[in-house]
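Hi team, as promised in this morning's meeting, here are the two structures we talked about. I've kept the exact order from the run log so nobody has to guess. The first one is mostly here for context; it's the second one we should focus on when we meet again. Sequence first, then the predicted structure tokens.
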Amino acid sequence: MRIAFLSTFYPYRGGIAQFGGALYKALEQQGHEVKAFTFSRQYPDFLFPGKSQYVDENDNSDAIPSEEVLDSINPFSYLKTAKEIKAYQPDVLVTQFWMSFFGPSCGTVAHIVGKECKVVSILHNVIPHEGRFFDKPFTKYFLKPHDAFITMSEAVESDLRKYENLKPSALRPHPLYDHFGEIADKKASRKVLKIDEELKTILFFGFIRDYKGLDLLIEAFGLMDESYQLVIAGEVYGSFENYEKLILENKNKERIHCFNQYISDQEVSTYFSASDVCVLPYRSATQSGVTAVSLHFEVPLIATDVGGLKELIKTGETGEIVAEAEVNLLYETMENFFANDPSVYQKHIQELKVEMSWDKFAENLVQFVEKLP
């Protein structure tokens, strides 16, 4: 199959670019002809909340070859991108959607190209965690020219049906990221991070945003005894001031280790290998790429019962679910988790890894496209 793939790719960083790169490789390895099209400008700098949109020299990101042609805020580039994709003569255009901001640019390309081939989108989010006035019209505009959709959680599938009732979709679980390296020795990893080698270790990982509930985790950690330590690893989107205040007021502040920075790809293994559990205390969610990373490193998860998180986190098997984003419930769940036998979680996670490969996801995507009218 001849596939045009429109998404963010290398040299941009982040989970969506990593997802695109892994899927691109899997499709190529299965013998399909794939061409990647990405942004010449993804966000204007003043709209980007982090320090950089690009990978750095410490990242292990796959250098996916792509045409850097689409400027998210330049309509002339929308036409140019569509023209280049049409010249490639694909059987299908695959897009990714994760933020309504990209509705006009990617939606226009899909509209033009869709007159000549099938157009399918992989939906990471439909309704955003942090709403903006343009979300609804931009999302509608993006979805309209697509023929079908791939969703990765029941929550996203449900959100899609609030906009689009008739077009086909397929629910396929988020594959496990496997490009961050292998599992390392736990004590050696803790030594690298300069944290206690013996304490039970809780990890919060990923970009820090208000909806992710880090404040709840910090407060819950304050209820725990001296046998625990908390590792916070990720770049803050916005201000870290409120979190810093909570840490300074926390009775366990000496055992809270902050790595408030962008974590390069080659560092990811160290953080997960050092940890006993990864906690997602989210106030809202659809699905999270962090779950895929954590399960790759065979680290169980504790997450709040929001969005599609519980679809991969099976109670007593791959982790534990907290009924709601509340400090005492989070504390109790973490305590109960550490009272269980960790080998039980590891066994179930290893079984799950077999079913959630990129090859399987790519195979399912192609079969879905082939069945479209």
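And here is the second protein, the one for discussion:
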Amino acid sequence: MKCLICESVLITVSVSVSGVHVLQEVNGVEWDDETEEVKGFSQFGYDGEDLLELDPKTSTWIALRPEAVIAKPIWEDDKELGKEFKIFLTQIFPEQLKQYVKYGRSSLLRTELPSVSLLQKTPSSPVSCLATGFYPHRASLVWRKDGEELHEEVDHGEILPNHDGTFQMSVDLKLSSVTPEDWTRYDCVFQLSGVKEEIITKLEKDRIRTNEVKPSNMTVPVTAAVVVLALILIGAAGFIIYKKKKGEREKENISPL
């Protein structure tokens, strides 16, 4: 991973003859924590245009515009100035950068992989591949066909923040040109910066979450329960009628004394 630290100085110079001018100075260092390579840089700008740039390897200045040619030998003859820049770019800035990375490693180097879902409003709507819960925001989400990234028939959404500090993003695939037989040729691929592994989600019917209302699996059990209850009630009513009629017959068969 490459880390960068910069120090920017803005100096406004007022000249009574020609007005106000701006001199800008940017110093920084880039550190590759895998190879331990350190690259320092120092640049000057004048009125929004490049002026001078330091070559850290030779400690010489490069004139980036004709007006700077006269300043180049003057600055290079100033040994104390060159020594000061060298100390900052090779010692002070690299040590500061390494300390910043050390103290902020938990946040600077934090990575979280997302959960990926396939969503669809209706059977004719595009299939949306949603990745949510990833960190940092440097990530890509694409649809592929036969391993090749699609640039047509897709619609990329913006990277949006979640309430917990993570991010989410989505990409839609239009199904107008996709036949059911070709579904298995498509997949959604998420790639997080700094993480080698990809998250691949195949375009399959069973993976898609939709708003379409499906018949409930409880229909058959509920129907059976209603039928059983009806049979119980019919049986109970029949038993009551039978007992009533039996009692009437017994009364009729009793002879008076």
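Starting points for discussion:
The mean pLDDT is 81.
The chain has two domains: 2-108, 115-210.
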